Amino acid sequence: MTHYIDGFVLPIPKDRLSDYQNLVETVAEIWKEHGALDYREYVGDDLSLEGVRSFAETASANPDEAIIFGWVTFESKEARNLANEKVATDPRMASIIESSNTGFDAKRMAYGGFKPLV
Fold first, then answer.
1. Rounded-to-integer distance, Cα 62 and Cα 13, Å
2. What is the pLDDT of residues 65-78, one digit of tens each?
3. Whole-angstrom Cα distance, residue 85 to residue 57?
4. Cα–Cα distance between 98 and 114 in angstroms, integer?
5. What is the CA radius of gyration of the chain?
6. How far is CA 43 from CA 40, 98, 113, in A?
7. Where do the domains of the chain lie, and which CATH numbers do they carry?
8. Which of 18, 44, 47, 117 has the highest Cβ tally under 10 A?
9. Which of 70, 82, 2, 1 has its CA nearest to residue 35?
10. Residue 51, phi-psi category: left (phi > 0), alpha (psi -120 to 50), beta (remainder)
């Protein structure tokens, strides 16, 4: 079975990481209600390897920021497109984002949709 994923990397202030975790626990359930098969976010733990560009560099992160790496799995690109439409118009999402104090800045997030390679 081949799936389609949306992947993303973003910085979050370390002192707001707990608030961000609470936010994404709720957001993950909304994504799943609208068709996501899985929703995962991880916080960076080991971000340096000599000779390669790190996620922290890619995200232009400050020392006081944690790096989040995540992905959402869908049955297909079409299912992803439909879920994106539903999530974008779900009033809970706007309310959650507006009421949060996580330091999330969409302009600093790297994002892309990915089809299977192997």
1. 9
2. 999 999 999 999 99
3. 31
4. 29
5. 15
6. 10, 23, 20
7. 4-114 (3.30.70.100)
8. 44
9. 82
10. left
CA–CA dist 91, 7 (Å, integer)? 23
Q: HSE (CB half, 13 Å, CA atoms) of 102?
A: 22
Identify the sign of the CA torsion 106, 34, 86, 27.
Answer: negative
Q: Are 20 and 70 in contact (CB under 8 A)?
A: no
Is the pTM higher than 0.85?
Answer: yes
Torsions phi, psi for 13 (to 5 deg):
-55, 135
- Please give the chain's pLDDT, 118 residues, in tens: 689 999 999 999 999 999 999 999 999 999 999 999 999 999 999 998 999 999 999 899 999 999 999 999 999 999 999 999 999 999 999 888 888 889 888 899 999 999 999 8
